[in-house]
Amino acid sequence: MLRFSVLGPLEIRTDAGPADVPGDLQRILVQTLLVSEGRPVSGESLAEEMWGEAAPDNQANALQAHISRLRRRLRTLEPDRAASRVTIHPAGYRLSLGEGELDAAEFVRAVRQAEGAGAADAGRTARLLEDALALWRGAVFGGFPGGTLCQLAGARLEEYRMRAMELRFDAELRLGRHAAVLAELAEAHTNHPLRERFCEQLMIALYGAGRQADALDAFRRMRRRLDDELGIQPSPALRRVESAILAHDPALSGDAHLQLA
């Protein structure tokens, strides 16, 4: 069994340890097949990812040579596997993946599971998402995105990452761990200053930790930033959190605070 990782630099792990993928074109080829999660990718799409406008004159032959090279590499990593992982279909080339073999698929599955969890599952949700976020070793593909398909996949995974962080913070706040998540929330808000949900959660955490003035200051700074950079006002959800803090709404200290947003 191989384990493929794209939540960070591309990595293939075997039972004996990590195996490298030599060459930029081979890495782009593997990345493109991986983010397609078992669906065939046309030869034209693969060539566009690998070469862009600098495709060689013998594009089809060059692509086939890279496919053959990848097959040989994977065969050396799985000598007991009966059939090649890379197969040809009418719609293109496909890399076969089993359950648990791609970190991105496992991560997305965990986020979707957390989205379907109820308030009573806050402890389990927090642990689930903490483990899922630990799969990330850096930027998707390690900052080596390739072409359009990989760039779109990277953006989608980054959005899932933000969603996972929001859901985890929600779960931690439900559990009353306001002070415990303050540092992480402040970092998330700093790194994503226009994402209002992080600001809402930071305000709630600050209020829950006994820092009402800091919570209201976070709102004022966010309002100025939205006006200066986007020319818009805070969302109704963010204003509701401010109003709840000013009114010392009891909902801020329990599960119901999540209904404010």
Structure description:
With 261 residues, the chain is mostly helical. The protein is built from 10 helices and 5 strands. The protein has a 3-stranded antiparallel β-sheet with strand order 1-2-3, with no helix packed on it. It has a two-stranded antiparallel ribbon with strand order 4-5. Helix 1 packs across helix 2 and helix 9 runs antiparallel to helix 10. The two termini are 44 Å apart. The mean pLDDT is 92.
Write the layout of secondary structure elements.
Layout: E1 3-5, E2 11-14, E3 17-19, H1 24-35, H2 43-51, H3 59-77, E4 86-89, E5 92-95, H4 103-115, H5 122-133, H6 148-174, H7 182-191, H8 196-208, H9 212-230, H10 236-246
Antiparallel strand pairs: 1-2, 2-3, 4-5
Helix pairs in contact: 1-2, 1-3, 4-5, 4-6, 5-6, 6-8, 7-8, 8-9, 8-10, 9-10
Give helix % range. Answer: 55-70%
Q: What is the number of beta strands?
A: 5
Distance between the termini: 44 Å
Radius of gyration: 23 Å
Large-scale geometry: elongated
Mean pLDDT: 92
Report the total helices: 10
Task: Report low-confidence residues grouped into runs of 5 or more.
Answer: none
Beta-strand residue fraction: 5-15%
